[in-house]
Amino acid sequence: MALDIKICGLKTDQAMAAALAGGASHVGFIFFAKSPRYVEPAEAGRLREAARGKALAVAVTVDSSDAFLDGIVEKMQPDMLQLHGSETPDRVTELKARYGLPVMKALPLSEVADLDRIKPFIGIADRFLFDAKPPKGSELPGGNGVAFDWRILAGLDAGVDYMLSGGLNAANIGDALRLANPPAIDISSGVESAPGVKDPALIEQFFRAVRAARDDRAA
C-alpha cells in the first residue's frame, strides 16, 4: 500500500526541496497568524511552484472567513484545503462548492469516544486528519508536537481515509506505522530545529526512518 506523506508548515525553499527530495506526496502551508509556521499567501504561492507535478499543495486554515480564503486560493492556487478549526459539515460542503477543491477536515482525538466526531463528516470531507488534542494553554490547534494513543484507531470504520498527525518524528514513526497502519502521515514540528524552523536534515532523517520501518514490516 502506498503511504502518503505530508510535510506541513513549510516556509523556505530549502525545506521544500528536502520534502520533495524525500518523496513527500503533500506539502502544507499554514495560514494561521498565531502559528510560528505562518506564511503569507503570495509567498506560499511562490514556494508551491516547486511542487507542481510532484506533490499536492495543501492550504491549512483555521475557521477562516470567505474573504481570507479567497485570497489564499487566488494567490497560492492550492490543490486541497485543510480545515483545522471548528468547521461544521455544512461549512465543509460550502467551501467545496465555492472553490471546487477537495477538503481535508482535521479532528482532534484522545479517546475511542472521539471517533464518533467523524460520523457527521463521512461522505462530506474528502479525507480526515487525526491530530492530538492541544495541550492546555496552547493557542495552536495543531503543530504542538503532542501524540495521542494510536491504538484507538483500531476502532475506526474500515474505509475511512485519513492522515495520522501529532507528535510524529523519526524516533516514533515505526511504532506509529505498526500500531495504526495509517494510509497517510503528516509531520510538522517533528522535523524542526526550533518552532517554525524546518530542518532539511531532520526531514531527510524522517524519510529514512519511514523507509526503514516499512522495510522492517515487509521483511
Please list the strands of the largest sheet in the order they lie side by side.
Answer: 7-6-5-4-3-2-1-8
Helix content: 25-40%
Structure classification: alpha/beta
- What number is the mean pLDDT? 92
| Strand-residue proportion | 15-25%
Count of runs of 4 or more consecutive helical residues: 6
How many strands appear in the DSSP assignment?
10
Through-space gap between termini: 15 Å
Helix-strand string: EHEHEHEHEEEHEEEH
Low-confidence stretches: none
Shape descriptor reads globular
The major sheet is characterized as: 8 strands, parallel
- Rg over CA atoms, rounded to whole Å, is 16 Å
SSE blueprint:
Elements: E1 4-8, H1 13-22, E2 26-30, H2 41-48, E3 56-61, H3 66-76, E4 80-83, H4 89-99, E5 103-109, E6 127-132, E7 162-164, H5 173-180, E8 184-187, E9 192-194, E10 197-198, H6 200-218
Parallel strand pairs: 1-2, 1-8, 2-3, 3-4, 4-5, 5-6, 6-7
Antiparallel strand pairs: 9-10
General description of the model:
The protein is α/β, with parallel strands linked by helices. It is built from 6 helices and 10 strands. It has an 8-stranded parallel β-sheet, with helices on one face. A two-stranded antiparallel sheet has the order 9-10. Strand 9 (192-194) and strand 10 form a beta hairpin. Helix 1 packs parallel to helix 6 (200-218), helix 2 (41-48) packs parallel to helix 3 (66-76) and helix 5 (173-180) packs across helix 6 (200-218). The longest helix is centred in the C-terminal third of the chain and has 19 residues, at 200-218.
